[in-house]
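Chapter summary example.
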Amino acid sequence: MESYKEIKTYYSRKDTQNLTEYEKDHLPRLDFLIKDLGLDNLRNLKICDFGCGGGYILKKIKDSNEVIAIDGYDVKDSEITREVYNLDEPFSEAFISKYGTIDAAFSFEMFEHLTNPYNFIFELKKVLKEGGTLYFSVPHEATQHNTFYPGLIYPVQNLIQFFEQMAFKIKDHKIHSKRFVQNVLVLENRSWDHVKMLWPKPGKSFQGQPPHIQVNL
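The structure predicted for these 217 residues follows.
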């Protein structure tokens, strides 16, 4: 973890003048996230940041990619225009009609704030191309960050099981400790044929079906 002096050094950087207060407070975390995941090396992709906040990460990569900023609130900015979506409700149809599908998605420190996290991932699969990458993070349980469904994200093995049931392949799992401790996942979106239910049921009717259909058959 950084010392108070190290974080204050980030605050004093000349390029922080136009940042939101949240971005200033979390700058070490955001910069480390970009560097460690290689987000600044992404090229020629259509990328959407769900829960973009001030758009700091997208601003860093917008010259090399087509970027889309989504959040639950509207913040006017000269560099990036944010769309407002309620990610607890169906959004894929409206999104695809405007932007089409995307190559990669970001969701950093947003998932734990949703009242319907299943809906978000179910809808996200529709807009993220098969084989596309989801870069994702949530607070580590050591932070004691409250959430609507603590058993879903704490411990991280529960979260990994959830994503496997949503037919994502876990490509990487990291623990970051810049600013606060967080679990970071890199996931590949796969077809529903790759659903890995905890207790798979036999029979063709269950094959290739999303979890909400399988548990109600």
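To summarize the output: The first strand starts at residue 46 and ends at 50.
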